[in-house]
Design a protein that fits this description.
By secondary structure, the protein is α+β, with helices and mostly antiparallel strands. The protein has one domain. 20% of the residues lie in helices and 36% in strands. Strands 2-1-3-4-5 form a five-stranded antiparallel sheet, with helices on one face. β4 and β5 form a beta hairpin.
């Protein structure tokens, strides 16, 4: 079992990055979960994250979620899945 990294990026209708209440730009939000190698569970987590961020963001914001894992050999985070706008789930 390995950890999956869920990176959430929120942009407004003009595609500008999310700003917090102090006006600072927030590039991304990070979440982690254990990897069960079950696409159904991974998609359910993406849908849940989308609903959470959609509930607290302004109307018209675009929410993109990328799922990756840490590759110890290359030291990188290759993408496994992407989830866009509450309807598109892509497996890489």
């Amino acid at each position: 079992m390995r950890n999956l990294h869920y990176t959430v990026v929120v942009r407004d209708a003009k595609r500008k990055l999310y700003k917090d209440i102090n006006g600072n730009t927030v590039v991304k939000f990070m979440h982690q979960s254990s990897f069960y190698n079950d696409i159904g569970i991974i998609k359910a987590i993406c849908v849940s994250l989308f609903k959470d961020y959609n509930a607290i963001s302004k109307r018209g914001n675009k929410i993109n979620i990328e799922v990756s894992y840490y590759n110890t050999i290359s030291g990188t985070y290759p993408s496994l899945y992407a989830y866009y706008d509450n309807k598109t789930f892509i497996k890489f």
